[in-house]
Amino acid sequence: MNNPLLEPWNTPFSSPPFDKFDPAHYLPAVETAIKYANEEISVITENPAQPDFDNTIAALDKAGELLGKISAVLFNLNSADTNKDLQTAAREVSPLLARFSNDITLNEKLFEKIKSVYDTRDLSRLNTEQKILTENKYRNFMLGGAGLKDHSKERFREISEELASLSLQFDENLLEETNSFELQITNPDDLAGLPESVVEQALSEAVARKKEGWVFTLHFPSYGPFMQYSVGRELREKMFMAYSTRAFRGNEYDNTSVFKKL
Description:
about 260 residues
């Protein structure tokens, strides 16, 4: 199967050609990109030369660029314009990404090289940017479990992968709750204070939903202006309560148990 996620994007500014992407493309693309990234990491760890900024820090910073590009497309789409198939793709990919991230930060040979450059950073005549990048890489490895004992590293892996899945579940529940709410207004007096552009947007939303009057939602382009301009105190309260209790209403999308696990 040709996979447009793995091909060069011959578009203005190499922007993603979203119309060519299918949810089924993401998992195989991520698996392939992880394979490429692991090969790039192996080049660093197997390099017999003395670790320095170029062959270790800069090389690591460039490793996995394809994976980062694919992941950015998937998770930005999943946040901004999601559907069930995209959510499934995100759930499939998320544990792989968490596992890959752990494979890097828990790679002892790689960490030894990072630490070597970090320990000699003040003697290596690094410029300010190189020194900051070196310190950030070392810090990321420490936060990623590089300094843990072996048994703790395994537990760290388990927690990281579970967190990745739980975070996705939390976001999906939040999105479902956001999408499920609407405030339908049929009395023009209840539009008092709202700018004309906001009213027109609500009218378009009502037409799209085949509803009478005007419809406001909890999506911020609708929610924000309504809360800012509406003079209807009770309506603002209704919107505020709906927004602030999303995914904590005791229904199938309730995030209470997910939140406790997180």
